[in-house]
Amino acid sequence: MKGAFSFLTASALTCLASSSTIARAELDALVKRASPQAPNGYAPAPVDCPETRPSIRPAAGLSNSETEWLEKRRANTIEPMRDLLTRININGFDAGKYIDDNRDNVTALPNIGLAFSGGGYRAMTNGAGALAAFDNRTPNATSAGHIGGLLQASTYIAGLSGGGWLVGSIYSNNFTTVQAMIDQPGETGVWQLGNSILVGPEKGGIQVLDTVQYYNNLYDTVNSKVEAGFNTSLTDYWGRALSFQLINATDGGPAYTFSSIQDDEDFRNANAPMPILVADERAPGETLISLSTTVLEFNPWEMGSFDPTLFGFAPLRYLGSNFTSGELPEDDRCVRGMDNAGFVMGTSSSLFNQIILNLDTVEGIPDFLRNTLKGFLSGIGQDNNDIADYTPNPFYHYNNETNPSAQTKRLTLVDGGEDLQNIPLHPLIQPVRAVDVIFAVDSSADTIENALNWPNGTALIATYERSLNETMQNGTAFPAIPDHNTFVNLGLNNRPTFFGCDANNMTGPAPLIVYLPNAPYIYHSNTSTFQMEYNNTERNVIIQNGYNAATQGNATLDTDWPSCVGCAMLSRSFDRTGQQVPDVCRQCFDRYCWNGTLASDTPAPYWPELKLSAVNVSGKSGAAIFGPNMVLSASVVGFLLFW
Ligand SMILES: *[C@@H]1O[C@H](CO)[C@@H](O)[C@H](O)[C@H]1NC(C)=O
Ligand SMILES: *[C@@H]1O[C@H](CO)[C@@H](O)[C@H](O)[C@H]1NC(C)=O
Ligand SMILES: *[C@@H]1O[C@H](CO)[C@@H](O)[C@H](O)[C@H]1NC(C)=O
Ligand SMILES: *[C@@H]1O[C@H](CO)[C@@H](O)[C@H](O)[C@H]1NC(C)=O
Ligand SMILES: *[C@@H]1O[C@H](CO)[C@@H](O)[C@H](O)[C@H]1NC(C)=O
Ligand SMILES: *[C@@H]1O[C@H](CO)[C@@H](O)[C@H](O)[C@H]1NC(C)=O
Ligand SMILES: *[C@@H]1O[C@H](CO)[C@@H](O)[C@H](O)[C@H]1NC(C)=O
Ligand SMILES: *[C@@H]1O[C@H](CO)[C@@H](O)[C@H](O)[C@H]1NC(C)=O
Ligand SMILES: *[C@@H]1O[C@H](CO)[C@@H](O)[C@H](O)[C@H]1NC(C)=O
Ligand SMILES: *[C@@H]1O[C@H](CO)[C@@H](O)[C@H](O)[C@H]1NC(C)=O
Ligand SMILES: *[C@@H]1O[C@H](CO)[C@@H](O)[C@H](O)[C@H]1NC(C)=O
Ligand SMILES: *[C@@H]1O[C@H](CO)[C@@H](O)[C@H](O)[C@H]1NC(C)=O
Questions:
Q1: What total number of domains does the chain contain?
Q2: Ligand 4 pocket: which of 188, 192, 246, 256 to mutate (most atoms <8 Å of CB)?
Q3: For ligand 3, is residue 269 a contact (CB within 6 Å)?
Q4: Is the CB of 426 inside a 6 Å radius of any atom of ligand 1?
Q5: pLDDT at 282
Q6: Which of 114, 124, 221, 511 has the fewest CB atoms within 10 Å of its CB?
Q7: What is the whole-number distance in angstroms between the Cα of residue 9 and the centre of ligand 7?
Q8: Where would I find the PLA2c domain in this sequence (predicted)?
Q9: pLDDT tens-place string over residues 301-350
């Protein structure tokens, strides 16, 4: 059998990538958000280069593609924004008139970003509840007390790890709704989390594959990439397995690429926000990921980083091509198909790829496959079993002085939360994107004593600390964030909290953060990050809990909450236009803005109580697959405690 990293020449494959396959795929792309554009299924393959040869660009600004798209997107957010703001009726403020007075100059109006943290299926489902609340297509989301339309009014939507499954899944399925993902006419709902990813999709669910067929499929697709001459890692298996749960296509759509989103007619017309997934770089020799680690983003056009280290972007569609010093040598062909949608989602969540090693608990797995997967461990060492391998490094010999991987043809990425920045704020605080407000849904598991798995501000603290590092922050500013103890003592992790309300109290332009922590509204949604099975009852109740967190129980916990959401949306815009802040908004800011108070003593045990009536999920208990057999590297064991 071929070794994990066996390297073949790709020349044998050139014939597979006929231009007609691509033309057909591009036609398909016109009807689906993400589509099977890869020339040869899961395996990347050489193709003819476009007339303008792809190259690496410096991160000094936005890509032309994003800039052009933004013009349409900002304009398209105006109507949904006007609709939402007039619906929530900010007392004493004519929101309709304000929008109309400024609609000729859209930069005066709010520029909104959404961010969904990591935290496994807990983060995916809790985040889905908030996303459903933001989405005007969700039944009742535009009723009084709800906030539907925020999604349609947003410019960006970022996801990381479990939050990346949410965002990636929605965009890989034609920007569908959360509701559609869980609706199951004839059991065809897409998010079937009742069967562990180790066992494969349920019979009668979206796929009818038994476990052996499922593993053979994973093996065959990943092996096709090996045979095409590309390095693979556990993340390839993990991403393929995830695709079965997240992408509604036969065999999890092995040819679906993340870059195909750029060709979708609706996305091109800017009818949906721009999706961004986040990962960290693991530089050569680096084992522990620190706050100074390079943070990378994947968006529909590009992959790269604004950090001063890498400071460059590669065209996502042509990942896998042999870029050197930012260019593709004249005699080299282009490669497409490396940015498989599942692989990109798997990269952002690579901390979980070791789940796939927990095979001993599953019956019927062929021995050769068991051995292949375990072979990865001996091949790369346990400290590295969370990597996603992006060889050939598109940033080879690029920015030699600062880029930590400039001298190696290998580029390895890991889970975007490994630097503790578990909310994907990094792409949204870049000054060139000029985001005014970020709705940050935090489903992190930070608390380690007493009640486990609730957030305590760790992710925000990390991003704040990074913004204070002169070397790394590179022009990004971030609101002041208090310590963990203050979060717990003041309950900032138990209810919505705004940070950075005063734009003048910052080192530079920075967005207002609307922090929406996971807390118990109708269910104790602090399930383990590594719980790999959720029956539909529990899945749905966590989604509903997230909905209630985002809407404050549809305004039953605070009748002014929808107005306060509107005030947060408008705050920076008010500053720009010199608009007097309405009284209702002042009251909102008094209530929800962190005012600088510290309470840093060790807090009492955090045992949050339900804020609304409990919902019953009784029945037989769903087992967590994360068992004692799992093989973990030392660096990862630490993360299990507070993910
Ligand atoms: C994708 O969504 C759009 C609008 O929501 C819809 O018009 C179109 O039919 C959908 N395409 C597919 C292939 O489902
Ligand atoms: C647009 O609005 C911005 C922010 O309020 C302002 O700085 C700029 O001058 C305005 N441009 C025009 C053409 O009015
Ligand atoms: C929508 O609201 C109506 C009226 O309040 C209610 O009967 C219905 O159950 C709600 N639907 C959902 C999906 O919550
Ligand atoms: C999943 O695919 C099936 C079959 O094509 C389709 O009927 C269903 O609407 C899709 N679900 C979603 C959420 O897109
Ligand atoms: C700031 O970042 C630099 C460069 O990555 C790093 O070496 C340094 O340790 C960081 N400083 C602090 C205080 O974290
Ligand atoms: C960010 O980093 C790049 C590359 O090191 C540098 O050229 C640029 O001036 C930096 N920007 C700011 C605002 O510091
Ligand atoms: C890229 O370089 C590798 C190693 O030199 C080579 O095997 C491969 O064929 C090249 N890819 C293309 C598309 O030329
Ligand atoms: C980067 O480093 C490589 C290897 O040392 C060298 O060949 C290349 O010319 C350098 N690139 C630049 C732009 O200096
Ligand atoms: C907050 O979370 C961090 C990270 O898990 C943990 O070390 C710390 O003890 C927690 N503090 C409180 C007060 O919950
Ligand atoms: C809020 O509305 C959602 C969606 O309609 C519903 O599921 C939820 O139960 C409502 N919450 C409360 C507290 O009524
Ligand atoms: C204002 O800025 C100072 C200095 O960064 C900080 O200590 C303080 O907490 C900030 N106040 C608020 C309310 O954010
Ligand atoms: C679903 O899972 C929950 C949590 O493990 C459990 O309490 C409940 O009994 C299960 N419900 C069914 C119908 O299996």
A1: 1
A2: 188
A3: no
A4: no
A5: 93
A6: 221
A7: 7
A8: 48-599
A9: 999 999 999 999 999 999 999 999 999 999 999 999 999 999 999 999 99
Measured from the alpha carbon of residue 505, the closest ligand is 11
25 found inside a domain? yes
Distance from the alpha carbon of residue 641 to the mean position of ligand 9, in angstroms: 10
Does residue 605 belong to any structural domain of this protein?
no
Does 626 reside within a domain? no
Ligand nearest to the CA of 397: 8
Q: Which domain holds residue 300?
A: 2-45+56-592
Task: Output the domain CATH number for residue 132.
Answer: 3.40.1090.10
C-alpha 393 to ligand 2 mean position (Å): 42
pLDDT digits (tens, 9 = 90+) for 249-261: 989 999 999 999 9
| Residue 151 half-sphere exposure toward CB, CA atoms < 13 A | 28
> Which pLDDT score is estimated for 363?
74
How close is the Cα of 270 to the center of ligand 2, in Å?
A: 23
Q: What is the pLDDT of residue 210?
A: 79
Whether residue 173 is predicted with pLDDT greater than 70 in this model: the reply is yes
pLDDT tens digits along 231-242? 999 899 999 999
DSSP assignment of 112-164, as one string? EEEEE---HHHHHHHHHHHHHHH-TTSTTTTSTT--TTTTTT-SEEEE-THHH
Residue 340 Cα distances to 116, 337, 390, angstroms: 21, 6, 12
pLDDT higher than 70, residue 578: yes
Under 8 Å between Cβ of 201 and 193: no
Residue 595 Cβ contacting ligand 11 at under 6 Å: yes
For tokens 């803005």, name the residue. Answer: 593
